[in-house]
Design brief:
By secondary structure, this protein is an alpha+beta fold. 30% of the residues lie in helices and 22% in strands. It has 17 helices and 24 strands. The strands form seven sheets. Strands 3-11-10-9-4 form a five-stranded mixed β-sheet. It has a four-stranded mixed β-sheet with strand order 7-6-5-8. β15 and β16 form a beta hairpin. α13 packs across α14 and α15 packs across α16. The radius of gyration is 27 Å and the shape is globular.
């Protein structure tokens, strides 16, 4: 044994751990079940992608563990690999899993039930349409590259036979449930704690093999075992994002009215199905296809495929940016086909506010939306009418300017259930306990202020707790722009319960009727008198009465909400300048007008949009996770090869909010965490297409200088 080594684990040692692939079930065409691969803690007999964990070395120090890991010898027999989703569907392609013929995990027929009548009617509409627009687009694979890589510490309490995992996550309770399910443990036997998290973006929402292996090692050694991913490991093991091939057709009438939309998609799942991997490329994608437009008929077909690559999962937007990218590129293609100006074409097809609530063909109903007004506000804020003069000035300098529009709508909320608790530990203090998890969004600020406002107390008296499965808060986690709308609404409901209970206690103390008790500015008072007790005094009295057995409950309370999705929307406009001599494109200006419902904190909300823009700009211009098509080796496994956006890539952003309160939750919010990314992809790429010479083929993302230089000269292909 090498110096300092405590244990070496292989697949045989983790065989008792069940399948880490634990997605919510989704039905395929004709009610077919998804074909689920087995995702082990450590591979045994077979690996299916470069970077899949095979062995774990536990030593006294990280250096000793790394030195010993280099001594591990593994005999590999190479087999053919398939990494590109369009290759995976070809006849004779290597089969990733024998139980998934044609590499198909799920053939999804769309979000709305169809007995074939919708498809036949769409076929008829296309046959008689005045014009048809078509796009075929690659929404390339991206590496999440969060500021802080994943890491975890596992420990075991032998006396209680309980495991504890401290890990970065997007919800401690959700991670606990996934791992407990894989281990076959009662949830109370596993505690998950999450403290500060340096960025997540969907990638840290699920269980990973390393976490399971750590728990096995901690129990075997009866010692805490710690692991922190290196950046190289992160490139080869973190869930990656996007990777879809999109085809769309729009049928248009004589006046440019949208008649029908037909979408065909190939989605790359990687080697395994992650917790939300299938939902991302099916339900999340399909339910956004109506966007802000009246499209009477929509058909959506998605094939979800296995490949020999790192598993994919939700990445900021999780299906919504992919859908919006397709729709907005298609709308611009329709403008070219019909000869109608892109601005005018959009105006003709918006869903008007008077149509709300609006039922779409993709099984969702919008409660609110002022899409035309937001559009006009964005045009004015971007000085759209002044663009021709700016383009002319650039042309005199030998540069090409383009402007791109991206209207968008997402559905936010994810899991429709959420809980919260409000507890009074004593003194002038209220503790809000949540199951969502802050990963840089400012949860402590938003939730403490929201609770303080509803309670009528100073925010300094409110503490927010999250990140511990033992808080016992049922939660869907921090995903899908849901934290504020779901956890905030659950907290609001809980506070209503607290105030109702407090009235009963105050009435008892004051020897008054409940009808005579009012609550305002953080205190209960007898109406028409100066008799008054603060919230915290009543909480203390309730705890005292409960301890004496005189009442059944203290003011400590929990609440649950079940809410439909909300529909954040907006219009983003990008202005790009392209140097045809070098192919370098620069985003010079960016305008964002967003409807995220009620804005609770303008600073944090603006920051969410700006952060989303940075990630959207990165994908549009720079980022691309590339695998060798023959060997399956990851070719972009470090920042030397994988380009990331920098501060000097970011344009000045003119932003505004057009808040239309949501009507389906008590606080009126819609969500904003993914808006910047959802709007940015098409805005930037439409601007690049507009900047290219007439007849030049717009490239697929990322629009690198090489692609743009070739496009400007009509050399080779700018696609791919």
């Amino acid at each position: 044994m090498a110096p300092g080594v405590l244990a070496v684990l292989s697949g045989a040692d983790t065989r008792a751990v069940g399948n880490l692939a634990r997605p919510r079930p989704i039905e395929g065409r004709g009610g077919a079940k998804m074909i689920l691969s087995t995702w082990p803690a450590l591979a045994e007999r077979r690996v299916v992608h470069v970077g899949q964990p095979v062995a774990m070395v536990v030593a006294e120090t990280p250096v000793q563990a790394m030195d010993a890991a280099e001594r591990v010898e593994i005999d590999y027999e190479e087999t053919p690999a398939v990494v590109e989703v369009r290759d995976a569907v070809e006849a004779g392609a290597p089969q990733v899993w024998p139980e998934a013929p044609g590499n198909v995990a799920l053939d999804w027929p769309g979000p709305a039930p169809d007995d074939g009548g919708n498809a036949r009617e769409i076929e008829r509409i296309f046959g008689s349409a005045a014009q048809v627009a078509h796009v075929a687009l690659v929404n390339q694979r991206v590496v999440v590259a969060s500021l802080e890589p994943r890491g975890a510490t596992a420990s075991y309490d032998a006396a209680r036979d309980e495991l504890t995992l401290r890990a970065c996550s997007q919800g401690a309770g959700g991670l606990r449930d996934m791992l407990a399910g894989a281990f076959g443990l009662p949830p109370q036997k596993l505690r998950v704690i999450t403290e500060d998290v340096g960025g997540a973006f969907g990638m840290k929402s699920g269980a990973y093999p390393e976490y399971a292996a750590l728990l096995v090692a901690a129990k075997r050694l009866n010692r805490p075992v710690h692991w922190m991913s290196s950046r190289s490991e992160a490139f080869m093991s973190d869930n990656q994002g996007r990777d879809m091939f999109l085809e769309g057709d729009m049928a248009l009438g004589r006046d440019g009215e949208f008649l029908a939309l037909r979408v065909r998609t190939l989605a790359n799942l990687g080697a395994f199905v992650t917790g939300a991997g299938l939902i991302t490329c099916t339900q999340n994608f399909g339910r956004c296809l109506s966007s802000v437009y009246r499209i009477p008929r929509i058909q959506c077909d998605v094939r979800c495929l296995y490949t020999n690559t790192v598993q994919t999962g939700p990445y900021r937007g999780a299906g919504r940016p992919e859908a919006n990218y397709l729709i907005e590129r298609l709308v611009d293609a329709a403008a070219r086909v019909t000869g109608i100006d892109p601005v005018e074409l959009r105006r003709r097809n918006f869903i008007p506010p008077a149509a709300m609530p609006y039922k779409t063909p993709v099984a969702v109903t919008y409660d609110t939306g002022e899409f035309p007004a937001i559009f006009e506000e964005a045009l004015a804020l971007s000085d759209y009418s002044g663009f021709p003069a700016r383009r002319e000035r650039a042309a005199k300098l030998g540069l090409r300017r383009g402007i791109g529009i991206s209207c968008f709508l997402e559905h936010a909320g994810g899991v429709p259930m959420e809980s919260a608790a409000l507890r009074f530990p004593g003194g002038d203090k209220a503790v809000v306990a949540l199951g969502v998890q802050g990963t840089g969004q400012g949860h402590g600020t938003v939730f403490s202020r929201l609770a303080a406002r509803v309670l009528g107390v100073d925010a300094k008296f409110v503490e927010v707790q999250e990140g511990d499965s033992r808080l016992d808060i049922a939660s869907g986690g921090t995903v899908a722009s849901r934290s504020t709308m779901m956890a905030g609404s659950a907290m609001h409901r809980t506070i209503e319960t607290v105030i109702a209970k407090g009235r009963k206690v105050a009435a008892r103390v004051f020897e008054a009727t409940e009808a005579d008790i009012d609550y305002r500015e953080g205190a209960f008072e007898v109406v028409g008198t100066d008799r008054r007790l603060s919230l915290f005094e009543v909480a203390a009295k309730a705890a005292e009465l409960k301890a004496k057995g005189e009442i059944e409950e203290s003011l400590d309370s929990s609440g649950k909400v079940a809410l439909p999705p909300t529909f954040p929307n907006g219009c983003h406009i990008a202005e790009v300048e392209l140097d045809p001599e070098t192919g370098v494109a620069e985003v010079l200006a960016y305008t964002a007008v967003d409807d995220c419902g009620v804005v609770l904190d303008e600073t944090l909300t603006e920051a969410q949009v700006a952060g989303g823009l940075a990630q959207g700009l990165g994908q549009a211009l720079l980022e691309h996770g590339v695998y060798d098509r023959e060997s399956g080796q990851l070719l972009t496994g470090a920042f030397m090869d994988y380009a990331m956006p920098r501060a000097d890539h970011m344009p000045p952003m003119a932003d505004a909010f057009h808040p239309v309160p949501c009507t389906t939750n008590p606080i009126g919010v819609k969500g904003v965490g993914e808006a910047g990314t959802t709007g940015a992809l098409a805005a930037i790429m439409n601007a690049i297409a507009d900047a290219l010479p007439p007849g030049a083929e717009a490239p697929d993302m990322p629009a690198t200088p090489d692609k743009l230089w070739r496009a400007c000269r009509g050399r080779g292909t700018a696609k791919g």
